[in-house]
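Appendix B. One record, verbatim.
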Amino acid sequence: MNIQVQTKHYLGLSVAPKRIADVLAIAVSSHAYLPKTEDLASDWVASVAAPAFKLIRQQAGKAVPSFCSIGTGSGLDVLAAIELLGSTRVGFTDLQEDVVDTAVHNVRDNLRASETVAFEYGAGDLLSPLAGQPHYDVIYENLPNVPLAADTDITDSRNSGHYLEKRAEPIPELVHRQMLDLHYLALRQAKDYLTETGSVYSTLGGRVALDVFRQLGELAGFSAEIFTYTWKVQAEAAEVLAGYAKQEAEGLGPFHFYRVADLKAVFADVVLETSGRQAFALEKALAPKALSAKAALSAWQKGEAIGHTVVVLKSTPKAP
């Protein structure tokens, strides 16, 4: 599948992009998650990653030389990092070779002719394809939460938003109960891929208590903080809500969703720059409005718009 993306609109730029094309020509592998470029409130890069990248650059006060994406999909997150972070060396991985091959072409083909960017990439598990490469200033991940059913195949294109649950590595019970296994494992690996001053930015659907995310970082051996706290419309609501409801029925969770109207009301005056510091107060304000996954699915089936909060967790290695 091929899509065209109006870069200025997609990334929320006030001026034309400097390093990537005005209109991005993006091929999407059948094994990759399809970007929601026609509905930016549902699109992860447009609504979550791009605003976070802008804030990272603003706080750094300069370009971020190197960037890595775990599970890049179409490569739109890498293109966003090149434009917004100013990165000149990028690494990216995904589970399947055709996804990575397509992402390589997407990134290369949508750079302006004057731009020189070094690439490191590979197909495989989390960061392992980049073993032996130089370290990165920013590692970004937006990995699946819902595990794949035992009778299905990860290579089926419909399953690109799921993950294989059985892992050899030990997973803390708190992490597993909230279906954060891949995020934990990515953090554990990331310590060997960061520069001395680098950080990992985990972008997470905030469907569990905020303190769980903080503990996620701590359990993986990092100092963790809520970098930004926002919300988005639940994409692919029928499948996602049903998946969470199934896991909830099996004893995992609890998971929290909200009516879009309630999210809009609570976040009405919140700005991104201070959202992380306000996160726990906002969570408290939302608490009376929370819906279980089962209740959210029922409300959605009745025509109500459903969303969830979004956390960008910043994890920095602890000092020796």
